[in-house]
Write a structure and sequence with these properties.
With 334 residues, the chain is α/β, with parallel strands linked by helices. It has one domain: TIM Barrel (Alpha-Beta Barrel). The chain is built from 11 helices and 9 strands.
């Protein structure tokens, strides 16, 4: 989603009903980021509503490290629960659908063999989310996305789907996981997100893969086209939505809201730093949020600075002054 040199980070679009307005920011949707929340709130003169965290530290992309369900349970019971209790009113939690020790075991998951682990994870998350405070009198609303970007395949994620022959097992696995999480929750604290990368370029479509039991859909655009051309694009397999506008339409057609995470400028190796520092992308994204506020669940800026080719951070660093200023002024104006 860019115009001219606009470069976007893959972003997660989530569709959830009902939308949760920003209890602290005053925006019509819950608004936040990953990392450096306080300085980003100061930059935009609006308090952060939402934090984005991951339970995927169980292994690295090379597949080494613990990478098992007991480690995921332990993380949920300890540092993740602490983040939720001490964080803002909304937490977006990305969690491995399968750890590396169980890579590709979608059929085993679909049989319910891992349900016990998910109920333990759910119990820990419920306890943390139920903790109230002055800033969170109703506790924490949790958007939980099990296994984001499954449609890009197993080269990136151990739960990735490579072929249509795996789709049935994937859907059943996802449904088992969400049912196990919901079985220990009560009330409205939990909203389950189905997150996708775009475009769909394997031999299955969004409609074929959609598990149908989500509260929220998710989107991570990864293409580099102009904003207007990409906005309402349906260039994925079987006419699957690609652009952010197309995904919003898909959300509305299913009676759900859309949330956007991991969005931001993207300092990739194929562009210069000057091209990456593009305020127009920030302006377009915020304009989209405002224009679609009635159907927005949340936004979470990817405020991290990992490497030269994976830099998005607006604050506290000042590497991208133009984008930084655009973010601050857009969100301040509201």
């Amino acid at each position: 989603m860019k115009t001219s040199a606009i470069l976007s980070l893959p972003l997660v679009a989530a569709l959830a009903a009902p939308a949760l307005a920003g209890p602290l920011s005053g925006l019509p949707w819950a608004s936040g980021a990953k990392d450096n929340l306080t300085c980003l709130g100061t930059l935009r003169s609006r308090t952060i509503d939402l934090q984005h965290i991951y339970i995927n530290q169980t292994s690295n992309l090379a597949g080494t490290g613990p990478g098992d369900f007991p480690t995921m349970v332990n993380n949920a019971q300890n540092w993740v629960s602490s983040y939720i209790r001490n964080g803002p009113p909304v937490t977006l939690l990305s969690i491995d659908l399968l750890p590396y020790a169980n890579k590709g075991q979608l059929s085993t998951c679909a049989s319910g063999s891992f349900d016990g682990y998910w109920k333990q994870i759910g119990t820990a998350l419920k306890s943390a989310a139920s903790t109230t405070s002055t800033a969170k009198p109703s506790g924490t609303t949790l958007y939980v996305e099990p296994g984001w970007e499954a449609n890009i395949g197993s080269h990136s994620h151990p739960w990735g789907v490579d072929d249509i022959s795996q789709v049935a097992s994937y859907k059943s696995c996802w449904q088992h996981v969400t049912a196990a999480l919901r079985s220990v929750f009560s009330g409205t604290l939990l909203k389950v997100v189905w997150s996708n990368a775009t475009p769909y370029n394997k031999n299955f479509s969004v409609a074929q893969m959609d598990p149908g039991t989500e509260d929220t859909y998710g989107l991570l655009p990864i293409t580099s086209t102009t904003w207007n051309n990409a906005l309402n694009s349906y260039s994925g397999t079987g006419g699957s939505p690609t652009g952010i506008g197309a995904w919003m339409s898909y959300a509305k057609s299913h009676g759900k809201k859309m949330g956007l995470s991991e969005w931001g400028i993207w300092n990739r190796s194929v562009v210069t730093p000057a091209q990456a520092d593009d305020p127009a992308y920030i302006n377009y994204m915020f304009g989209f949020f405002k224009a679609n506020s009635a159907n927005m669940a949340y936004d979470a800026y990817q405020n991290v600075n990992l490497t030269y080719t994976d830099g998005h951070e607006l604050c506290p660093s000042t590497n991208w002054p133009n984008a930084r200023n655009a973010y601050g002024s857009d969100f301040k104006a509201g």
